[in-house]
Specification:
Length: about 280
């Protein structure tokens, strides 16, 4: 990875230079205005999927499944049917859609074999109690199989896919693209993409080149720190050190926050509406 010069974001957008990890986190925000006709290079889509594939995953099961769809390969009617009330325009403008699913069949198909692969490569070591015997006689029958029968199973599997999706999402920005996770019409998708019954639908990752500026009005509002992060017990906030905040600002992870009624953002939305023929 290379460090980005302060004036180099155009080069970054052209995909010629990578950002530091913290800046990728800082620059990501949900992009909802895409260049509708600007195609996304296939290698960038593959890179996004490669990043998802390398995500950590409980018991190395890899529930994550994704179906990539080029928007223009859907008919107008199919695209219309795919929309939801909170993601209609996102879906219409994004040239590439990556539909994410959790495949609930993996655990009982694999029967612990992916854990045994981890034992074989020394990732799960005997020092920690791991062996093929431990997987076959204890982990699979007493933990994994019962897990698949629990009502919480879908939540566990979806959490796993969420980790993979997050890597995909950040990688889209690292590749100079914009992206937004969105809901979609899961019934239509199942029919159109021949989705197996064991796959549960999660979200679509919409990908394309941003039509809005990369700042897109600034980093979006978050709940107060003290409401989210605790130390030792609930109700005792993890102390937030302002010196760390300052360092993260320097690293461009914490960026200018979006503010209400920002005239520059209002103007940007107006310009986008005119250019893309959208209602205001
Ligand atoms: C799992 C998930 C589902 C989302 N679904 C939608 C959606 O259906 N429509 C939409 O416009 N944004 C959707 N978003 C984007 C969030 O609304 C967005 O994260 C939030 O506005 C905070 O802004 P930021 O992502 O720019 O930080 C989704 C985000 C996540 C993580």
């Amino acid at each position: 990875m290379h460090t980005v010069r302060p004036d180099a974001f155009q080069t970054v957008l052209a995909g010629e230079m990578s950002m530091e990890f913290k800046e990728v986190i800082g620059r990501r925000r949900s992009i909802r205005f895409f260049e509708p006709e600007k195609p996304v290079e296939r290698e960038k889509i593959q890179t996004i999927l490669e990043a998802a594939r390398l995500a950590s995953c409980a018991v190395n099961a890899h529930w994550a499944k994704a179906i990539v769809i080029e928007r223009d390969k859907l008919s107008d009617e199919q695209l219309e049917q795919m929309k939801t009330p909170v993601a209609a325009l996102n879906i219409e403008l994004a040239p590439v859609h990556i539909y994410w699913y959790a495949d609930l069949s993996v655990v009982n198909r694999m029967k612990g074999s992916r854990l045994k692969e981890l034992v074989d490569v020394g990732a799960l070591a005997p020092t920690h109690g791991w062996s093929h015997k431990f997987v076959d006689e204890f982990v699979y029958p007493q933990i994994l199989k019962p897990m698949t029968e629990s009502p919480a199973y879908a939540v566990a599997a979806s959490t796993d896919v969420g980790v993979a999706i997050c890597q995909a999402l950040l990688t889209a920005f690292d590749e100079g693209l914009g992206a937004c996770l969105s809901s979609f019409n899961v019934g239509i998708a199942k029919e159109l993409f021949h989705v197996p019954d064991e796959w549960i639908p999660l979200y679509v990752l919409l990908v394309g080149y941003p039509a809005e500026s990369w700042q897109a009005g600034g980093q979006r509002p978050r709940p107060p720190w003290d409401e989210q992060y605790f130390e030792g017990e609930h109700g005792k906030p993890f102390e937030r050190d302002e010196a760390v905040v300052e360092t993260l600002k320097q690293a461009k992870m914490i960026q200018t926050p979006a503010t209400p009624n920002n005239p520059a953002r209002i103007e940007e939305i107006k310009r986008l509406a005119e250019r893309l023929g959208l209602p205001l």
